[in-house]
Amino acid sequence: MARGRLRIYLGAAPGVGKTYAMLQEGQRLRSLGTEVVIGLVEPHGRRPTAALAEGLETIPRHTLVHRGVSFTEMDLDAVLARRPQVALVDELAHTNVPGSRNAKRWQDVEELLEAGIDVVTTLNVQHLESLNDVVRQITGVTQHETLPDEVARRADQIELVDLLPETLRRRLVHGDVYPPDRIEAALTHYFRVGNLTALRELALLWLADRVEEGLQRYRAEHGITAPWETRERILVGLTGGSEGETLIRRAARITARTPGSELLALHVVPGDGLARGDQAALAGQRGLVESLGGSYHQMTGEDIPEALLQFAEAENITQVVLGASRRGRFSLLLHAGVGQRTIHDSGPIDVHIVTHEAAAGASAPRLPRPGHGGTGPVRYWSALVGAALLLPLLTLVLTGLRAGVGLSGALVLYMLAVVLAGLVGGRLPALLTAVAAGLLADYYFTPPMHSFKVERGVDVVGLVVFLAAAWLVGTVAGTAARHTHQAVRATSEARALSRMAAAMMRGEPLPTLLEQVRENFSLTAVSLLERDTDHGPEPRWYVVASTGVRPPERPYDADVEAPIDDRLTLAARGRGLSGDDRRILTACAAQIGVAHTRGGLARRGAGTDLDEQVRPRAGALYLRPVDLDEALTAALDDLGPGGHSISLRLPERLPDVIADAALLARVLATLVADALRHSPPDAPPTLTAEALPGRLTVRIAGDTTGGAVDGERESPSLRLSRDLTEAMGGTVEHTTGGGAASVTITLPTVAYHPDPEG
């Protein structure tokens, strides 16, 4: 007898629609004349799922008693006796009640397959044995029901039932997954956006591995040996030079030729701050990368090739695109360029070196960059100019005293000039000063005079020793100067960070912190920007707080940017910053990000006054149509794990409200937090919504007064919620009486026309 075929509907989490998809397939097969029976289906109280099972023959369940409690399981013997063509069996990883013939449901399914019965079943990715530890790390929940991966791998078909995390959370809010008393706990625990996104990626990657296995089997069976293109990640390195757009387009063409590949761009800011690149060019190149569907990244690194490859390794990059070096051949012989060093250390990563106009004809040797040695370009040129003035003046004085000074005395005084050059500009100005001083000593103080010839061997030895000693002394002096400069720099950085930390401890509002950053770095304007990740492929940015004249409203408008995380970034206008300044700015930005997050936590937890940075300011509001479901799920997500539940009673359809999405989520989170905090565990607060002509009302019933009762003043959280709502054009009404309290939020809506068909 031929073995039955196994089909699995795989999902990332409960509620994505696996059972529904299984029943749809059963109805489709039934309509084609196939004998289909339901061996076991778990609708979990979902009415649409239960309705879809109507019309399909259902095998009655078998009842078992365990420890005095009755349970039902699939009646395996009855299904085998019925011998349908197809059996629908839900939850493949289920553990059977003790006393069943098999310990696991997948073992029941194995018997059906051996009997020649096709089986359609469902499985969540978190039940796969190989992913058990990963799922526990992500969700904090240990899955006790697991399925050996080999069972799933043997399936004839695996189909992914996919749903966006935001869509699944909206289904939760409407009660399509769990009953009302479990919604709040689910949203703030297992069903957080990060958890669902990670589980979804696990499901996609696990299924992609199965597709790859199938592809390899196909290639082996058909004798295909030539390589086939698979998923690639292409990284383009940007310096801020004019060649950037050429490199981006070249990398984009590579990406377009490889299905499923991904484009990334990286700008490495050197730790010494000597090669900052053109910030305007980088801003334009960032926009070009994002317009081509790629992502832009920036990191600081002392060694550019090393930083580039570290990023590539972390991001699983398969190909790197770099521009040909602008340096000449002679210079490259002395010191390998970024491209050469990247190729040497790239390992399995392919490196493409792309020619461009800026590299054409670059064959003339160049002097080392100003400031080589870490002293900075200003000190470098100051040392050279000082030496150019001091040496002629010193030579003029010494020639007047030639008879009494002699060669040895002149060399000692010239050594002082070399030391000064080293202290100011580093070892390279010291070397150049030593060479110039040696030539002057030879010309003016070594017989024959006014000639570069040297007659006496002792003079030759003296000049050589002078050059060697001058080089060593200048190098030591330059190193000491650099260390002193670094110590002073470290002290100033520590002082700046200390002032920032002290301001945060005092609870200073965000605009005050930003003003401190602006003053520390002599900038004209600073903004803290937040990105709306749900807006679409084109990122939309909002100003959380700002200071200065014409603060930037997008990262592309800024001269300097310090990303904080995937959502927040610090953008500034003003002078270009060195690598050291960028590093300390990044540290300050991280502290500001912590302050912003701490402010959000304070708003949720203590019910105290909102920080100044969340108060509406001119130009800071972005009023647009907002889906109440999205704002509510964001608010519940912000609450974090709580000790109470909240009952949500929302109509199936609601019009969008005109509001600022971030502020509306904050208002809802603040009021719901108050309601949860002051409601007894056995009487959770309720949230209802109603659409009225031109407006929508949201009512939170429970003690949302922050402890206030009739006759007392409003709580700070309620007062601030009213201020924020009124700034968006809405109202907040607080009512009490009979031991109960409620808050009603009213906001204008977009044009809404109810469906006459219901």
Give the overall silhouette: elongated
Distance from first to last alpha carbon = 52 Å
Radius of gyration: 36 Å
| Global mean pLDDT | 78
The side-by-side strand order for the widest beta sheet comes to: 3-2-6-7-1-8
Q: Helix content range of the residues, please?
A: 40-55%
Which structural class should the secondary elements be placed in? alpha/beta
Query: What is the number of strand segments?
Result: 24
Portion in strands: 15-25%
Give the secondary structure arrangement, pairings included.
Elements: E1 6-11, H1 18-31, E2 36-40, H2 47-52, E3 57-58, E4 62-66, E5 69-73, H3 76-82, E6 86-89, H4 105-114, E7 118-124, H5 132-139, H6 149-153, E8 157-161, H7 165-173, H8 180-188, H9 193-221, E9 233-238, H10 244-257, E10 262-270, H11 279-291, E11 295-301, H12 304-314, E12 319-323, H13 329-334, H14 338-345, E13 350-354, H15 377-400, H16 402-425, H17 427-445, H18 457-505, H19 510-520, E14 523-532, E15 540-548, E16 560-563, E17 568-574, H20 579-605, E18 624-626, H21 628-639, E19 647-649, E20 657-659, H22 661-678, E21 686-692, E22 695-701, H23 716-727, E23 731-737, E24 740-748
Parallel strand pairs: 1-7, 1-8, 2-3, 2-6, 6-7, 9-10, 9-12, 10-11, 12-13, 19-21
Antiparallel strand pairs: 4-5, 14-15, 14-17, 16-17, 18-20, 21-22, 22-24, 23-24
Helix pairs in contact: 7-21, 10-11, 12-14, 15-16, 15-17, 16-17, 16-18, 17-18, 18-19, 18-20, 19-20, 20-22, 21-22, 22-23
